[in-house]
Amino acid sequence: MKASVFCIWFGASIVSVMAVYGAGTEVGEGARYGPVTAGCRLSMSTTQPSFRFDEPVRVRLVTENLSTPNLHVSFPSQFAFVAYRFDISGSDGKPVPLTRYGQRQMDRAGSQPSAAVQPGESDVLDLAMFNRLYDMTIAGEYTVTAYRRVYPPGGSVEVQSNTIKIIIHEQKATSN
Amino acid sequence: MGAHERSVDVDFTVARPTFTLGSTSTNLNPAIDIRGGNTRLEFGEPGIQTDGIKIEAVVTAPAAGAGKVGFIQLVMADRRETLDNNDNRKWTTDEDWVLDDSATAPFYFAPIAVGVGFENRAFPYLADSPYNPLGPAAEVAGNPARKASSASDSFIAYLMYRPGTDEDDCIWVTLGIVEWYWEADATKVNNVWGVNNADYPDPLAPPPGQNTHLLPYWSQRITAIGWQADD
After folding, report:
1. How far off is chain A from B105, nearest CA to CA, in Å?
2. What are A's interface residues with B at a Cβ cutoff of 8 A?
3. Sheet order of strands, B40-43 included
4. Which of A9, A168, B1, B163 is deepest in the core (most CB within 10 A)?
């Protein structure tokens, strides 16, 4: 599988991918991907199942095109937060708000680069500090689902990821 | 002591890549519309022949001229909006050219390799569908809705070339440019958005490539721009 991989620290520089993704407690039947939609699927994972409150929460999003020729995505591997929509709730079940930084990103205007992802290819985005975008300052269990609009020929459709739980600890974090 | 004047004539042979450079404008009708479930005022939409603009080049390197090619895009942006609370806001580069930023900055996409000769030519491209957000203003307290939005942007896409490898002491030079723009304004009446005016490159006469050696110059990156009060 051909995959273009960038690790993005918002507002800073590109760094090489050092972290190992694939963690995050799955919700539901343990699916690593969301449902196949328009011949593609979206996966979300973290580098570890839980994080200390002051650690960066690293999230990887993989959009995999299984079968649709000339499927397009916007913001390919770039400042792509705005290309995604997240449902995130805390331990109390209430929606978790964006941070001021996250709000600024959501309100961005400007260009919208796009690129084709051919069958067998993936577009990979690493968010190096997800908790800079959403307020995860309170310890507890967060449930997160991502959505991304993709553009098969003739229209657009939103693809849903698997749902993961991210645990924030006050003190010591567990790791893989 | 008398001054001595010396002069020398030097002839340089510049082995420049050959290239074609052009663009296509979206085939969507209307080209500029309210899209994304009333969340964007958008020129085109990502996809085959639906991108607002797609700039494409074919570059053939000369002998010993293998290297890389890519696009750098500058933008002069002026976006305005009015919120339901009647606050006016602007998102503008103040008539200055700034870098259209990305994770591969200064390049729009990561540069690609070009080998020597026709069979090793490269096909760099740039696809863009600029938009204004129309949803609730996330950054404003109370997240008020928007009720008017406008855009008036100019762009220059630079096709850049650099011979050699990343380790070689070579510089990027410009091969050509494509200039393009989009303008639009939309308002929300009875909770329904509508486009009032729209202007964009004619699909039947899209912006042509221009041969130039002028280098791109920018004062800052577009990601440094944010919405601010428009008093």
Report:
1. 9
2. 6, 8, 11, 14, 70, 72-74, 76-79, 98, 100, 102-104, 106-116, 149, 151-153, 156
3. B32-35, B40-43, B131-133
4. A168
- To which residue do tokens 């919208």 refer? A112
How large is the C-alpha radius of gyration of chain A?
Answer: 16
CA distance A173 to chain B (A): 30
Q: Is the CB of B48 inside 8 Å of chain A's CB atoms?
A: yes
What is the spatial distance between Cα B22 and Cα B207, in angstroms, rounded to a whole number? 7
Q: How far apart are CA A40 and CA B216, in angstroms?
A: 38
Which residue of A68, A106, A114 is the best one to mutate when testing the B interface, meaning the one whose CB has the most B CBs within 10 A? A114
For A109, the closest of B48, B132, B138 (CB atoms) is: B132
Contact B223 A79 (CB under 8 A): yes
Single out the residue of A4, A3, A1, A119 nearest to residue A71, CA to CA: A119
- For the entire predicted model, the pTM comes to 0.85
Instruction: Measure the CA–CA gap between A156 and A107, rounded to whole angstroms.
Output: 21
Ordered structural domains, chain A, with CATH: 21-169 (2.60.40.2970)
Nearest residue of B to residue A126 by CA position?
B103
User: The domain containing residue B104 runs over which residues?
Assistant: 18-229
Name the domain count of chain B. Answer: 1
Residue A110 gets the label, from left (phi > 0), alpha (psi -120 to 50) or beta, of left
ipTM: 0.81
* DSSP letter, residue A31: -
Residue with tokens 């109390």: A92
- Residues B184 and B193: their CA atoms lie apart, in Å, by 13
- Token representation of residue A159: 């693809």
* pLDDT tens, position by position, B78-135: 999 999 999 999 999 999 999 998 778 899 988 999 999 899 999 999 999 999 999 9
Neighbours of A136 (CB within 10 A): 21
Return the bridge partners of B221, or none.
B99
